[in-house]
Amino acid sequence: MAAAAGAAMGAVDDLAERGEARKGLRGHLGALAHGRVTTGVLKIAGIGAGALLAAALATPRRGSGPGRAAETLTGAALIAATANLHNLFDLRPGRALKVAGLVSAPLALTGRGTPQATLAAGALGVAAAGLPDDLRETTMLGDTGANAVGALVGTALAAHPSRAVRAGALAVTVGLTLASERVSFSAIIDSTGALRRLDALGRRS
């Protein structure tokens, strides 16, 4: 559900965006404040709706009432933020899929048979299958693929039974998203030796 919403809204952006000047959350929300609905605003709404439905199913059930509602809302925020973050990383061949693999691998390898491990294994399989062609630049994720795989990784995180893990993941994804409004991920990666080598691994020169 989350991946389908991510893919559908990503496709809207891939197919409908034509030289869109507004970039980032600030740009799209600023456009909305002036009465203009951009593809980015549609993505926020559509991915958010899919994330909310997925979180209602995937977030560990603890209690009911306001507490349960808060868990679902934070789960939805985690799914949507992770989908968006993968899209922000998708600026070089293979980068977003490497991020998906690095996040989903430990989730898939622990808690065998649990919902988060099963979802993470799916995301890991997608990353492994898509990475070779993405690195060779014979295919590309675009917003469609990056948002979809990111939403799947986010759902695996939202299904984790540990509240500390979910809260930590949400803090990291939101923090990185806000940071992207001011700094370039590519510039940081290119200036950091270990990150630069990992980013370039498998990519043709």
Keywords:
globular, 10 helices, mainly alpha, 205 residues
Number of DSSP-assigned strands: 0
Q: Structural class from helices and strands?
A: mainly alpha
Low-confidence stretches are: none
Question: C-alpha Rg, in Å?
Answer: 17 Å
Give the SSE order as H and E letters: HHHHHHHHHH
How would you characterize the overall build of this protein?
The chain is mainly alpha-helical and 205 residues long. It has one domain. Helices cover 75% and strands 0% of the residues. It has helices at 2-16, 24-33, 39-58, 66-89, 95-109, 115-136, 142-158, 163-179, 185-190, 193-200. This is UDP-N-acetylmuramyl pentapeptide phosphotransferase/UDP-N-acetylglucosamine-1-phosphate transferase. It comes from Georgenia halophila.
Write a short abstract of this structure.
This protein is mainly α and 205 residues long. The protein has helices spanning 2-16, 24-33, 39-58, 66-89, 95-109, 115-136, 142-158, 163-179, 185-190, 193-200. The mean pLDDT is 88.
